[in-house]
Amino acid sequence: DSQSARMNVAKSGYRVFSANSTAACTELAKKITERLGVELGKSVVYQESNRETRVDVKESVRGQTIFIIQTIPRDVNTAIMELLVMAYALKTSCAKNIIGVIPYFPYSKQCKMRKRGSIVCKLLASMLAKAGLTHIITMDLHQKEIQGFFSFPVDNLRASPFLLQYIQEEVPDYRNAIIVAKSPSAAKRAQSYAERLRLGLAVMHGEAQCSESDMADGRHSPPCVRNTSGHPGLELPLMMAKEKPPITVVGDVGGRIAIIVDDIIDDVEDFVAAAEILKERGAYKIYIMATHGLLSADAPRLIEESAIDEVVVTNTVPHEVQKLQCPKIKTVDVSMILAEAIRRIHNGESMAYLFRNITVDD
């Protein structure tokens, strides 16, 4: 039997490992390997008593293509370290290709320069390359341009077909829905959903929106001390101070089901505030659809107490604990598209099939 297993490895020439040994995180890996009909690679990932990460790969990987599945639980930094250590262990064991399957790419919100910060997402991309990764499969990157941070190929799969299917099958009377962007920055994604479902579009803007955009360009940095040598400096034209209007909804949501779409739902305060306003404007049901359900801190309680009727996310991030606290949270399984991506990459097939009807703005 072990000989036939070995033959099978030699024939298929690829292995799938999980960079995480906790049950919640290996769940997605198990779903993917079941769909592919392969065994999950034998490895142990654990934290030593001094909190150092240790990875033991229990089988030979020489000359093989290895896929490492890493779902990011609450402790994001440990997860990154696990991925780095495992990639490096495989690299030094002479694996031919090491492909990271990282459905939710962490630090993806830190992809723009803020004051005297840094673009952490780019740093992470460099670290993964250094550790030995040669390719990444991910889902709904926070900004598509993040792909350019990597020195190797990135397949940025989309969850929208699964979420659209959920709307059509699970939202009663969805033809009476309207797609809502909770801020102008989410309008492109919302437009893409609205057009494919042939529904109307509403956009919210104004004060309740989180004002991180103001922090992005360093305008709140301390002013430089005026040069005392008498040089007046350049006289720049005085810019008008930006002032957000009170929150407004562009588009009529009265008597409609409102479906807010976004890529990540983490801090839920702004979603809760948006739901309140949509209720005031006459929406009778409120859904939130997002790819990555991080749902940090007391998000489940806030959702449970809010005007939101249902939060629909995919299983790119484990969130079983949050579901126990809040029955309004529903999960859509995306393991199928991840498994298909692995199969196609290994067989050298085109990925275009996985992007049918995906618009640029998705």
UniProtKB/TrEMBL annotation:
Q: Which InterPro entries would you find in this protein's record?
A: Pribosyltran_N (IPR029099), PRTase-like (IPR029057), PRTase_dom (IPR000836), Rib-P_diPkinase (IPR005946)
Instruction: Name the CDD domains on file.
Output: PRTases_typeI
For this record, the Gene Ontology CC terms, alphabetical, are: cytoplasm; ribose phosphate diphosphokinase complex
| Pfam families assigned | Pribosyl_synth, Pribosyltran_N
Q: Which GO terms describe its molecular function?
A: ATP binding; magnesium ion binding; ribose phosphate diphosphokinase activity
Which segments constitute the Ribose-phosphate pyrophosphokinase N-terminal domain?
22-132
Q: Which residues form a coiled coil?
A: none
Metal-binding is among the record's keywords: no
Keywords in alphabetical order: Nucleotide biosynthesis
GO process terms (BP): 5-phosphoribose 1-diphosphate biosynthetic process; purine nucleotide biosynthetic process
- Give the family, as the similarity comment puts it: Belongs to the ribose-phosphate pyrophosphokinase family.
- State the protein's purpose: Seems to play a negative regulatory role in 5-phosphoribose 1-diphosphate synthesis.
Q: What is this protein called?
A: Ribose-phosphate pyrophosphokinase N-terminal domain-containing protein
- Give the species: Oncorhynchus mykiss
Q: What is the lineage of its organism?
A: Eukaryota, Metazoa, Chordata, Craniata, Vertebrata
Gene name of the encoded protein: LOC110538516
